[in-house]
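User: Sequence recovery, please. Input:
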């Protein structure tokens, strides 16, 4: 459960940064940390859906589309 809480907390921080108009680099840093936390969550309780979510986050970061993902 700690892993899920870490992911939710990170998402809340990312949303707050986005609302505050934080620089893209700050959002990317948070999103990279989110991938690490999501990987931990996926290993413990995420199953196939968790692995797919991590894969999508990783792909978005690799193409620098990540800041645009927040508005989705």
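Assistant: Recovered sequence (72 residues):
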């Amino acid at each position: 459960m700690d892993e899920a809480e870490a992911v939710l907390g990170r998402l809340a921080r990312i949303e707050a940064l986005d609302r505050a108009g934080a620089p893209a680099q700050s959002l990317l840093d948070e999103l990279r940390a989110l991938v690490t936390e999501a990987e931990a969550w996926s290993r413990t309780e995420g199953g196939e859906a968790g692995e797919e979510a991590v894969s999508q986050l990783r792909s978005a970061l690799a193409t620098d589309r990540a800041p645009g993902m927040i508005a989705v």
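The CA atoms of residues 57 and 63 lie 10 Å apart.
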